[in-house]
Amino acid sequence: MYILGNGRLITRSQALPYLENGAVCIDGTKIKEVGETAAGYPEAEFIDARGGVIMPAFINAHTHIYSALARGLSIKGNNPTNFYEVLDGTWWAIDRKLTLKGTKASADALYIDCIKQGVTTIFDHHEIPGSLFQIAESAKQFGIRSCLCYEVSDRDGEEKCLQAIQENADFITWCEKEKDPMLAAMFGGHALFTISDKT
Length: 199
Description:
Blueprint: E1 2-10, E2 18-27, E3 30-35, E4 45-48, E5 53-54, E6 58-63, H1 83-97, H2 100-117, E7 119-126, H3 131-142, E8 145-152, H4 158-178, E9 183-185, E10 188-189
Parallel strand pairs: 1-4, 1-5, 6-7, 7-8, 8-9, 8-10
Antiparallel strand pairs: 1-2, 2-3
């Protein structure tokens, strides 16, 4: 149990939206009390927020983990003039070259950034076989709640599309068996103009 206190507390509660000098008492994964001092717990370890902001964490509702190591990337000869050219010349080019080792490095980098920026939940689309299970390992390692899917698309042909559908189905089944409250699966289509009516 610990108390995070001596900070400007934003609760997002109508009853008590803000305390200039607030504290939160946390026991395991549960918030026991929120208030000015939360001092009724002498056994709790005190963590001094030193006047910083204490608030609920952020949710990143749309990210692509494989882009974590591509910030500022410029591909020689790629000068896109529209959205499709950005996708085809940059992101899909990266997708086609990414390995599981690269996926792990990207996931680790993104999860470290999440921790630094106060993000505790992400929703991600990914693109290479086995990637969802690799990302799930990193999510568990860093303690970031993750809802993951594999991008279903016809852009690389029917075989790749069917592989993406199977990857989603396998990960959904695995998540249902695991019952890990920190991991969830969704079924992803990306992007609509690359998906046939049949798919």
